[in-house]
Amino acid sequence: MTPRQAAAMLAVGRAALGMAVLAVPERVTAGWLGSEHASQPVVQDLARSLGARDAALGFATLWTLDDPVVGARVQTACAAVDTVDALATILARKALPPAGVFGTVAIAGGAAAVGFYLARATARA
Hints:
By secondary structure, the chain is mostly helical. The chain has helices at residues 3-23, 25-33, 35-38, 41-64, 70-91, 98-124.
């Protein structure tokens, strides 16, 4: 798999997650935040904003993959967002379900590391 293909897969996953959060925020965020938090309307509204962010970043990545400068910058922005998601989850860990913390930090942290790598790799290609 080439770095471009891997970046495209990561972008499709991000866009799909964003669309899912937009469509059914409570269902998607319950594992991360816990059912009692995810069922609150204000949390669902905030989750939708995160969903819109991820959908937009995923599509922006796909649209700019063939531009080594802009594409790499968009991928770096995605990796930075993933880093903040992981750190924010760590900071809030006492109020969140342990499995949600572990899963979110693993997924967001992994996506951040891979995203930073792919941003550099696709910029060189």
